[in-house]
Amino acid sequence: MTPASSTPRALSFDPAAAQYAANRPSYPAALLEAIEETAGRPLAGARVADVGAGTGIGTALLHARGARVVAVEPGAGMAEQFRRDLPDVPIVRGDGNHLPLATASLDLLTYAQSWHWTDPDRSIPEALRVLRPGGALALWWNAAALDVPWIDAQTARVERHFGLERAVGGNGDGTHAALAAADGRLDFAHRRIRWSRRVPVDTHLANIGSHSLFLVHGRESTDAFLDGERRRLSAVFPDGVVEETYDVGLLLAIRP
Predict the structure, then answer these.
(1) Which of 25, 51, 58, 131 could form a disulfide with 135 if both were Cys (CB 3.0 to 4.6 A apart)?
(2) Is 8 in a helix, a strand, or coil?
(3) Would the pLDDT of 4 be above 60?
(4) What is the model's pTM?
């Protein structure tokens, strides 16, 4: 199996790193609290590696919480943007299938919006290798809140645009949970946290356009889709400010 980090969709983020950093949503403070509660230890002082760190959206939160964090990122463009945004946080090149980290060296290994780029047959053994006994593997992602009517309608338009079928459950967390738990070597606890942010329409559209499906689909097609979304959103949000609502799914397992 070809590692996901080498696929065109994974590599598509590099030229869009600045767009990604400026427009992608972060995560709520309640997520960090849930990680601490489920892992049974504070983040302050913990030895942490954030894998698939991208431009550092998740890494920055861990660092601010007092974790001794190192980032792992395969993409040159994303790593360059990371260094600009977080010059005081170390970053190494690598991916979850081949972690450039010492055995039993970590209290916490995190994947913020990045686990699906790994091959679990490789990434789970690697996680078990680098975590100390009692250390934790935490996977999380923002999923669009499809019970919000305008978000459900927009998601349906994206699916039609790319000829996609909606996953059972309406978002990616069920798929990721099954992917992670199927290995059988780790018992994952699952938490879900709802949160929202208010952003200008331009930020919302740039956020959509920074997703890999759009990045590999061609600028002309992407621009045409986003222009149509701008017109639709102006009717829903006449003040030009969009309220994006997310459910953060967290999967966390303790290494035996």
Answers:
(1) 131
(2) helix
(3) no
(4) 0.90
Bridge partner residues of 108 (DSSP): 48, 136
- Cα–Cα separations (whole angstroms), residue 104 to 109, 126, 132, 155, 255: 11, 10, 4, 41, 10
Of the pLDDT bands very low, low, confident and very high (cuts 50, 70, 90), residue 149 is very high
The hierarchical CATH code for the domain 4-144+169-197+245-254 is 3.40.50.150
Domain ranges of the chain: 4-144+169-197+245-254
- Paired sense of beta strands 106-112 and 188-200, if any: unpaired
Residues with Cβ within 8 Å of residue 163, at least 6 apart in sequence: none
Report the alpha-carbon distance of residue 62 to residue 134 in Å, rounded. 19
Give the tokens for residue 43.
Answer: 């983040």
Please count the CA atoms within 13 angstroms of the CA of 10 that sit on its side-chain side. 19
